[in-house]
Structures are given as C-alpha cells and as structure tokens.
Amino acid sequence: KKYVYFFGKGMTEGSADMKALLGGKGANLADMTSIGLPVPPGFTITTEACAYFDQHKGGYPEGLRDEVIANLHKLEKLMGAKLGDKENPLLVSVRSGAAQSMPGMMDTVLNLGLNPDSLQALIKKTGNERFAWDSYRRFIQMFGDVVMGVPHAEFERVLQSVKDENGKKFDTELDVENLKEVIKRYKIVYKKFTGEEFPVDPEYQLFKTIDAVFNSWNNERAIKYRLMNDIRGLLGTAVNVQCMVFGNMGETSGTGVAFTRDPSSGENKFFGEYLMNAQGEDVVAGIRTPQTIDTLKNVNPEVYAQLCEIRETLEKHYHDMQDLEFTIQEGKLYMLQTRNGKRTIFSWLRSQVEMVEEGLISKETAVERVPAQEFNKLFAPILDNKIIRDLNCKVATTGLNASPGGACGQIYFTAKAAEEAAAEGKDVILVREETSPEDIGGMAVSRGVVTCRGGMTSHAAVVARGMGCPCVSGCGEIHVDEIKKTLTVNGVMLSEGDYMAIDGFTGAVYTQKIPVKPSEIMQVLDGTMRESESLLFQNYKKFMSYVNEIKTMGVRTNADTPKDAHHAVLLGAEGIGLCRTEHMFFGGNRILSMRKMILADNIGAREQALSELLPMQRGDFYNIFKELNGLPVTIRLLDPPLHEFLPNDSTTRHETALQLGISVEEIAQKISKLHEFNPMLGFRGCRLAVIYPEILAMQVRAIIEAAIQAKREGYDVKPEIMIPLVGIYKEFNFCRDKAIEVINKVFDEQGLKVAYKIGTMIEVPRAAITADEIAKTAEFFSFGTNDLTQMTCGFSRDDAASFLGHYVNDPDKQFYEYDPFATIDFDGVGKLVKMAAGLGRSVRPDIKLGICGEHGGDPKTIAFCQEVGLNYVSCSPFRVPIARLAAAQAAI
Ligand code: ADP
Ligand code: MG
Ligand code: MG
C-alpha cells in the first residue's frame, strides 16, 4: 500500500480530488503544483497512515518509515541539499492537514533539520546570520511546544525577558547576540521540562515531529472543534513534509495570508495581510500588527502583481473564494496553501450571488454551498443606530470589523468566566488580549468577541466568523488587566460585568449598553427600510429566487398566531403546517372559560363554557385565514392533556375557585381526578374528542365559520382540519364523521360553502403501521415526529436528558448518530415514516404528506423528507429560510 505522495514540478503524484487521503492542504499543494504555481516541493503522508497510527498506539504500518525516507531522498535530490546537512542543509516544515479544514487546531513545525552544524552551514550559505539564528530559535520553540509539550508560555517568558533586558520591543529588533542568548535559555527550558538535550539528529527530529502531528489529531481542542462543527467520519490528519522557504530573511522577505474576496462582506476585492521579515504564524498570531495586502504594491510591485494574477487563477480553477498562504523569500513569491475560504453568512450570500452573475458558477452550485445551518444569522440583530444617534453614544475605540453583527452584553476576560456567566443566562462579550484555540468554548457562548491584538485573519476573527459571532479585533487602545479583571480604553475603566456594545460591521466599540434591533433583511421585509437601501436584501432576494427555482418540496410554518404567521410568510412560508389551538386557550378570560369547560360536571355546563370559547377561537382563525390569504392552513384540534390548563399552585386555585363560584376543595378534587401517571400516553389528542365530542364540534365550527367569514370578505381560504394522536382508523373516522356533521350544519346556516380537507397526524406507531386503513378516509398525513420519536424509541422527551446525551456524544457509545429529537432517527423512526408514506399512497395516490415535528427545520431531516417524497416540511417561523434552503439543497 502507498502511504506517501510526492509533490514537485513534473513529479506530482496527488491531486485535488484526493482530499480524503491527502487532506485538504496536501491535495491542494499537489494541485497547485500541477497547475504551475510556485509551490515549494515536498511529500504528503496519508490520513490512512494516521488512522493506522491511531489504532496501533503509535505504530507505523509496514513500509511507512522506508517510504518516508525514500521520499525524503527524492526531495533532497531535487533540491540538491540534504536534511540538516553540515555542508548544504535542507530544512523542512512538517504540517498537519485533514480532509476538512480545522484551522489552527492541529500542529505544525517549521525549520526542521536545524542543529548547531546545519545552522553554521545555513549562515555560510545565505550569508545572513540573524536569519539563521532566528530560524533556529523558532524551531526549538515549536519543536519543544508541539512535539515535547513544553509550555508555550515558558518560551514566551524567555523571549520577553531577553527583549526587556535589551530594551527591544519587537522580535524583529533582536540581534544575533540577543538571539543566541534566547537560544541558550530555550535549551535550558527544554532540558528542564523534557530531561533531555535538544535533539540534533535531523531524522530523529523528523520522525518525532511526524508522530506529534499524528497525535495532534486527537488533542482536546481538535476533538472539540470536530464536535462543534459536526465533522465526522474522517480517518485522521495527513502530514505534509515540505521544503522551507523563508519569510524571515530580512526586509525583502515576508509572509502573508489572503482571501480572494472579503470573508466578512463577500465583496469582490483582494483581501489580506502580510508582514515583512516574518515567518509562519506571525501574521495570524498577532505578534505585530500586519499590513493590508494593497500596501504590498508599494513594497514589491512585481510580487503584488503576481499575487493578483494567482488570485484570479485560483478562483477560476476552484470556482470559489480561496483562502491562501504565501511567503516571499528575498523578493520571490511562494504559495504555501489554498483552500475554500471560511466566511460569514453575509459573505457567502454576496460571493455566491456575484459568482453566479459573473458566470463562474451555476445557481445550483451557489445554493448547494451556502451553509443552511447558518442561514438564519442573516436575520440576526444589529446595533440600533437610532439610539446611538439619539443618546449621542460615543465610540470608545474602533478596531477591525472582523465578523459582522451587533452585540451588547457584559464583559468577561477569560473563556471560563464567559462560559460561567453565559450559563447564568447573561449576555456575554468576551474581551481578550488575543484568543487562542483554547478559547473556542468561551467564544461559542458569547454574544460578541473583542480582541486587543490580531488582524482580520487572526484566530479570533477566523473563528468568530465561522461561528457567526460578531467580533471586533485588534483594538489596540483597549488594555486588559486579566488579574484585576478590568480594562481601560482611552481613559475609561470597565470592570468584569460592565456593559459593552460592539458593531462587527464597522469595528466600533461602545462602553455602554446599546439595544440591538432587527437585521436589514427584516427591516426591508417589514417595510421599515427601502429595498434600494440594502444591498444585503437585494442579494438575499436574488439568492432566494435560485432557491425557489430549485426546490420541489413546500415549506410551511408552525404558527399559532397571526403575528407568527405574518412573520413566517414574510420569510417565505407557503402555508401553515401546524396551528396548535391549545395556545389560544391561555391568556385573559380565555383560560377561565377553558377551566370552566374542563371542570364542568355535565354536558350542559360544558357546552355553556364552550360557547364562550367559540367566538374567541373564531376570531383567531379568521385573522390567521386573512393573513394566509390563498395559502393552506392546517389546524390541529385540541391535543394536550386537560390538566395542563388547570391551576397548579394554591393561589391560582383560590382565584379560580372564586371566579367560578365553586369551592377550592372541589377544584382540588377535580385536579387530582385528572392526574395521570403518564400524561403523554394518557387522555389527550383525539381521545378528548372521542369522549367529549362537543369540544371538537366547537373547534370545527369556529374554523368553518371563520373561513366563511373571510371568504365573504374576498379572501381565499384553505382550511385543513387535523385530528391528532390517532392510533386506529376507527378513532379517525369517529372524529371525521362528527366534524363533517358540524361542517354541513354550518354550511346550511351560512348558505355558503368553503373547500376543506380533513386529515390526521401520524404520531402513534400504530397509525404508521396501519396507515393504509387510515388513508381510506384521511386526505392528508402530517408526521408528528416529536411524539412519533417518543413513542417509537420509548424516550420520554421530558426525561431523556439524563441518558440520551451519552447515547449521542460519548465516544465509546454513540448509539445514535444524532439526537433523535433534533435529527430524525433515519433507521428507526424514519423507516416508519417511509412505510406509512408508502401505505398511505397505496390507497390514496394523491394523499398530501408533510412533517410538522421539530425535525421539520433540520437540514438533515429535510434531506430525508425529500428522499421519502413528502410534499412539504413545516417548521417554526424563524427556521423557514433555513428549511427553504435545505429543501433546495436536498433537491439538487
Ligand atoms: P495551519 O494549518 O495551522 O495553518 P500550516 O501547516 O499551514 O498550519 O502552517 C503554519 C504556518 O507556517 C503557515 O503560516 C504556513 O504558511 C507556514 N509554513 C508552513 N510550511 C512552510 C514552509 N515550507 N515554508 C515557509 N512557511 C511555511
Ligand atoms: Mg497553525
Ligand atoms: Mg495554514
């Protein structure tokens, strides 16, 4: 088996489509080499080798070591140099890189091959003494940290003290003597922590580092990152061993990162940062504040022009925005990495729409790529500009607009403190000197992130953009004292817990509370902003037109109020898939009439109470029909157990007793009579209608009277009456007959008819199994996947938390791939859905099928629904855009 793939001009073995095997970095290094870009040669050890290493506790598959040595010799021959040689040394980097990019999560070591002998040779060869010592000190630090686990801070402390002792501010100011001193002390630190001398044998260095990179696949932050980003099923990381090029050879050398378009806004302009006389991570780590890419024009116009050309080449080649790394060695440009750029959802939207218009990609490609899970961040709030003007809020300082969105909250200075405060329900703004991969947990719970150092491509910026968390980076005027838990900014001091507001669109930071308001898209949708004023909205509109062209399933919403329905329709809902009537019974004197109805001793008293409820329900339905003019509305009859409507504390019981003119004892008695051990399997759903048909009669009457009223006023009404919790067709038929009886009566009374449908929810496993019998009379099925999951898996939704997390997340268990209440359990519950759909269609080919559980807004479930051939999914209003996009993606 082949475990190593070479890349170098005319000798490249890998290609772009080998990402699973070579990792994204390795595959694209090979690919860039093949299309003639200047890439330092090297070789890639496959992810399969990493998987083997993992399973065999650090063992190599047979032949791997020899294959690495053979490739090393090939590289040495090509370069005319030898790894760590004392005459003509070759130096390499050893880089991680998995199939899906996990920026900064795994490890990389640069300048490998240096030892006292090769160092001297490097000095002789380059005539650049400072550069050689600088490279050596970097190598010791990286090898010590990455391979041997020497705390990074120990090295930083040494570096800082040598700088302080010599009155130097930046790393670049250290001269040869200073660097020698640093290295002397580094070696002492190294020995203290490892008990060994710093290794001199280049081959030993190489294999130790390869092992460390393999091991970094399973370091804590990499595991956390994969979990958070739902990255599954990868073999491991590949290892890239690549010839070094040096950005730290002086002022004609440098290193940088760039995006072919703006990763924050998506604008089609070259975007990036670089540092002269710097190496590797200096730009990303925020060691010095980097220069913006357009200033490179003045520093080295040829290299700048070449980079601009490469930018175009890469976009044309990959048909997507690229995130690239480059290094300039004494005026010569080298490409070190390219990958599809991580970007905000705003940038996704704009870049994909513009690429369609530029003819670079198809509409399908654009739709397929935009991450559905993040789509609702487009609708996330922004800082309220009007309040900023009215209150004359002063910008305390301005940093870089690293990740868009407005945020306001209380400040915390460590990831841990942020996590604790967020757990208490506070809105958190995380303020850090700079962030590191250890901070991702704290960033994930924060409303916004602020850093003092670091550019647009710094860790904080990249991660925050990935999370859709507003971020302002590089606020040089903010000084944080982590120990005292305070910060100062231009004379203002804030303590932990004080308020701060940030604007990730502009980079403005405010040291006060500023409310946030709806996003631009929402403002245009509800008419408070003009379409022509919002480029974002225009792009959104274009993109959604692609979505609508492509998708075949309908997307409805679960809405109980005209307001929710209105909102959902603005977001593109094509009807209501689930209108829960029980929520309409709360509030005001409605709940009182409801309680009267429940507590009634006889049918007369119950009908009296129901007649009070009738006009209220009719009013609700009437307003919903008006709002949904022309779109179908599925209304579910009363579903929850009745005791949910009764007062459960003594004060409300007293009140209720008073209002109803009965004794508290009587109420208490009734309540205890209604008590159930398993209310979710108890007296609820259609069982209520079977025992108290007068409840059903009232609701059906309210629906039909409302529909007729709306129709009279010129609205187009499409009521669909849905009977819940049916298990056997006889239940359904009983309810259906009663409903039709009422409907015909209302038609007679009103002298006007409306078209309607009567169908059922499929949420009891028995109903799914006997769906053919039910479909004889039911005109539609709506899969209520919450209850269906609960009853099929036997997991109580309210009690499963104690073990279900383990079933899903524990690495040694993972019995369920996803939480079955969030993503449908394809093989179990999904199988029932498929079966019921088939049975239903077998007796009624045109039966309408939909899903209305929580799952209806989950992209993975939506893909499943497409496969089963459902007519529509229904989800909560704010997930409607996600569901539309996911439905289009499922149709491609
Ligand atoms: P990550 O995946 O965390 O970005 P990389 O493997 O890309 O890690 O490397 C870290 C840094 O080192 C990057 O800035 C990269 O450009 C630089 N680097 C990697 N290999 C070389 C090399 N052969 N010559 C010069 N710089 C390199
Ligand atoms: Mg890195
Ligand atoms: Mg990189």
TrEMBL record:
Q: Which residues form the PEP-utilising enzyme mobile domain?
A: 426-507
Q: Which cofactor does it need?
A: Mg(2+)
Q: Quote the record's binding site residues for Mg(2+).
A: 763, 787
Q: Where is the Pyruvate phosphate dikinase AMP/ATP-binding domain?
A: 20-58, 65-296, 304-344
Q: Which UniProt keywords apply?
A: ATP-binding, Kinase, Magnesium, Metal-binding, Nucleotide-binding, Pyruvate, Transferase
- Where in the numbering of this chain does the PEP-utilising enzyme C-terminal domain appear? 539-890
> Any keyword Transferase?
yes
Name this protein carries in UniProt? Pyruvate, phosphate dikinase
**Organism, scientific name:** Bullifex porci
